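tool_call: predict_structure(chain=1)
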Amino acid sequence: MTTERGEPLSIALSAAKNIFEKKAAVFIDARDSIQYGDGHIQGARNLPWHNVDDLFMSVMQDISHDTPIITYCDGETCNLSHDLALFLKDMGFAHVNVLVNGWTLWIENGLPTQEGE
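tool_result:
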C-alpha cells in the first residue's frame, strides 16, 4: 500500500499501538457512522469516506497538517482507509498512515475501544 510516488502508507499494528499509547497521532475511522457507533478505536474520529466532502471541515478543522494521522476501516479488502489516507495527503496532511484491517486487528488484540459518538 503506497502513494502514487511509491511512499509506503501502511503501518503495523505494533507501531500503531505504540503511537496510540503515546497519544502521538489522531486515529480516523473511515467506516460509516453506524459502524463507527457500534464500536471504534478509543478516541478515534469518524470521517466516513463516502461523506468526506460534507464532513471534512468539521472533523479535521482543529488538526494541524503536521499531526500524525492513522486511518483505518475493517477487512483486508477494505479500501476506505486507503482512499481517505490519499485524500488527506492531497489536502496537505504530511504524516498519514493506514492500519490495514484496523478494526478487526484492534479487537483481536484486545486494544481499547469504545461505542457511540
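agent: The longest strand covers residues 26-29. Proceeding to next step.
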